[in-house]
Structure formats: C-alpha cells, structure tokens
Amino acid sequence: MPQDIPPDSHLRKRTTETQSDQDTTIPEEGPPRKAPQSWFKWDIEKTEWDILLASTALKLLLYPAYRSTDFEVHRNWLAITHSLPISKWYYDTTSEWTLDYPPFFAYFEKLLSVPAYFLDHNIVDLNNLNYDSWSVIAYQRTTVILTELVLGAALVKFTRSAIDPPTQRIISASIFLHPGFLIVDHIHFQYNGLLFGILLWSIFMARHGNKLASGVLFAILLNFKHIYMYLAPAYFIYLLRSFCMTPSGRPEIKNFVSLANAVIGVFLASFGPFILMGQIPQVLSRLFPFTRGLNHAYWAPNFWALVTALDRVLLQFAKRSGFDIPINDPGVASTSRGLVGDTVFAVIPNVKPMHTFVITLIFQSVVLIKLWRNPTYKSFLTALTLCGYSSFLFGWHVHEKAVLLFLVPLSLLAAERHAYFRTFILCSVAGIFGLFPLIFTPGGKNHRVTKGILVNAEW
After folding, report:
1. pLDDT of 354 strictly over 80
2. For the chain, first and last CA: distance in Å?
3. Does the keyword Endoplasmic reticulum apply (predicted)?
4. For residues 248 and 244, what is the distance between their CA atoms, to the nearest angstrom?
5. Crossing angle for the helix pair 418-433 and 404-413, nearest 10 degrees?
6. H helices within 5-102, ranges in order?
7. Cβ pair 125, 83 in contact under 8 A
8. What are phi and psi of 28, to 5 degrees?
9. What is the tens place of the pLDDT at every residue in 159-213?
10. Which of 145, 302, 362, 384 has the fewest Cβ atoms nearer than 10 Å?
C-alpha cells in the first residue's frame, strides 16, 4: 500500500458509496469509524481554541448589556432553592417570577446557589428582589458561559466523528456562534446553550447507534426544561421503531424494558421527592400554565401571529363596513393588540389550547409516519427539525426563543444538499429577526413589558 494513502481509506470510500443519497456529513446510525480513546482526552485543535476564545471575549463584552426579566427570574430561583426547603420551592410567591421549570433545573439552580452565597450572600436573599449589583451580574453571566461548554463539547465530538470534518467544523462553529444563542443567552439571559448541549449529545448518541443513551439524555433534558416536549414525538417513534423493534417489526422486549426502566428512573430521580410529598399537582400547575394565553408577550413569528393580525384587520373592516358582522366586545380591547395576557379575538373564534395541540399533532404526524417506515438517523434528524417547526408554528403560547428548537437540528442538515441549505438560510434570517425585540433599545434605553406595563431598564 502506498505510504500516502491512509490504511482505512477503502473503508471511507465504501461507506460513502453505500449511502443512497450521497450523504457526506451525516452517516447512518452505527459505530463510529474509530472508537473514542477517552472521554477526558484534551483533543482541541487550534482553530477550535480560536473560536472558543473569540466567542468568550465577545460574551464577556456583553456583561453590561441588556438584562431582561429572565435575569431576575434566575436570581430569584437561586434564592428560592437556597433559602427554602424543597417542600416550598413550587409554592413560593415572594416574587412574581415563581419557579416554573422541571425539578432537574431546580436542582441545577440549587447547585449554582452554593458558590453564589459565598460570593455575595445578597444574591440568594429571597426578599432582595431585583438585586442587580455587579457581583450577581458577573456571576450569572459567567455561569451561562461555563455551562455552554456542554454545547461546545458535543459539537467537537460531532466534528471528530464526521466523514467530512472540514464541513462539519463549519457547521459546529455556526451553531456555537449562533446569533440566537448570543441574543437569548448572553443579552436576554437564559441557559439555552446548556440545554441544547444536552440535546446535541443525545443526537450524537443516536448518530452512533447508542440509542439507549440517546433516550436517557433526552429524558434528562425534558426534566430540565419541558419545552423540549415539542421534540418528544420524534424521539418516541424513532426509539420505539429502531430500538424496541426489529426491522421486520417484531418487538425487542429486552431493549424495550431497558429503555423504559432507564427513562422511568430519570423521571423518578427528578420528580421523586415531590411524589413523596404529594406535590405533583402543584408542580404540574406551575409547568403548564395554560391561562397565559395564545400569544407570548413577544410574539413568535408563527401562524397565530398572522391569525391575530388578521383579527385586527377584520375588526376594522367590521366597524367601517355596513355589514352585520358579530363583534366580541372583550376582543376589541384584548391582548390581541400585542400586549401581555390572554388573547381574545374580536371577530375570529377564540383558539383554545386543545385546538393548537390537535393542529400541531396533525402536521407532525406527516413526518412521523415517514419516520416509522424508515427509522434511520437522517430520517430522525429530519423529524426532529419538522416536529420543532410544527410546534413553533402552531403551538400554544409559543415564545419567540422557541425558534432555536428547529434551527439547531436544521443546522446539522444544512450541508446535506442545496435545498436544505436554502431552507436553513431563510429560516435563520426570519427566526433571528424575530428575536430582535429582545434587544430593542429605543432612545438609548432598553424596555420590557411587565404585565402590560412598559418599564424602562437602564444599561
């Protein structure tokens, strides 16, 4: 064999030729070409260091930038989990920003509250509302940057196992430097880098055939933030069909029991204390507050935003035309004008949570049927993207930040073919533009809406 030909080149060639649609970046499920030598090996290339250092420098510069109400939300959760016994976490109403994430995130806040107390005990003072000293700003901003390394580690693993590493490296860099994460996490203030890092680790495990680990990681993710339920149908169909059944459709009882026990174990670890205390109804009432209304304060650019806008147009038409069009009086002054609260239409029939659930499920079922028939990794990744997209378009009380639910998995598909790339560009431009209200700063000041009242927030 010539010296300039790698010894496994024939394997790469055969792998590439056997893929039906010439996939150069996403192999079908199965073991990686080379088994990882160690989970702890320090294997970071110079380019990756440059990306990490440049992005960290930018995020440090954003420390004094706009902080939304979410900043006080997470500071209050530090105080709740540090100052109160676990039995009172989901009952406390000292602040209007009550704890409304699943228990794993509450445990995460409890962990973060320990160094926060030693740094500045005022951070975890439950009655110290709207505390905004430099200590809490620096501490909370730093925790976002550090926990985002979970995302970076997952992207490095994707690059190391790719058939086309240069292309995958570009994709990974575009995700790590995604404007959505910069806006939502490092300006607006949330922990989406950590959460999407767990999601990508789960996808990575599915990519390499470790479907049990993929399911467990996704169960952990659900217990951090329940918005990822939007992606659950794709996981359910994929794992049921490809892991719990043979290709011919026969059940794999051992695999099914292993997966079921692992997922149940994750949920018991999360909700177990609250089950023992009989607090599950209270916890669920915090996690699923359907009274919040159809539209979020900052409207997601989805189907219901168009319907709400159409209702205002029809209202003006009904007032100015001579037609006898029934008008719902509460809807004339309702939050369909764009404020915070429930959405009541003036002309169009009101939309209920069940309506949005049914419509979302109908659109998701199209791709889920295809996934059931062809449960490959690529079909799974496509289903994840489209399930997230359907939920964003038709879900109840969708946040504008939920656009990341389909933009991130779509990023992994972008290099597949030109059609995917074109779709990715259009969705990215529209989705990131929809995040701009989070950083809108008229007159040199930032503004936020709190319960229908416009509030100034200095830089």
Report:
1. yes
2. 65
3. yes
4. 12
5. 160
6. 9-18, 46-61, 69-83
7. yes
8. -70, 165
9. 888 778 888 888 889 899 999 999 999 998 999 999 999 999 999 999 999 999 9
10. 362
